[in-house]
Design a protein that fits this description.
Mean pLDDT: 91
Structural class: mainly alpha
Low-confidence stretches: none
Helix content: over 70%
Largest sheet: none
Radius of gyration: 44 Å
Order of helices and strands: H
Length: 106
């Protein structure tokens, strides 16, 4: 092989090494940029999901509070009905108790 051919091969090898190094450097820059973009997107997704679940939790808490209030109102109405029934039977109950006391005293 001639000296000129060897020089061309060495120059081509040097040029190829420079192209490879630049490609590696460009790939590293692209990789880092992609990692940053993915991290930012993941952080945004996490923030969005947390906000969405916070809204859903608030909605469930409001529904639960309404159900509790309805339950209390229903229980209060039922208690009032029982009270009214008991008060309606009170005079008869007093008579029965008085009769039993009167009989036990004889």
């Amino acid at each position: 092989m001639s000296k000129e051919a060897l020089t061309r091969v060495r120059n081509a090898e040097t040029e190829a090494a420079a192209i490879r190094d630049k490609a590696n450097a460009d790939a590293q820059v692209m990789l880092e940029a992609n990692e940053k973009a993915c991290a930012a997107e993941a952080e945004q997704q996490l923030t969005d999901t947390a906000a969405e679940w916070k809204e859903k939790l608030q909605s469930v808490q409001e529904k639960a509070a309404r159900l509790i209030e309805l339950s209390r109102e229903s229980a209060g109405d039922e208690a009032q009905q029982i009270r009214e029934q008991a008060e309606g039977k009170m005079p008869e109950a007093v008579k029965v108790i008085m009769r039993e006391m009167y009989r036990s005293c004889q």
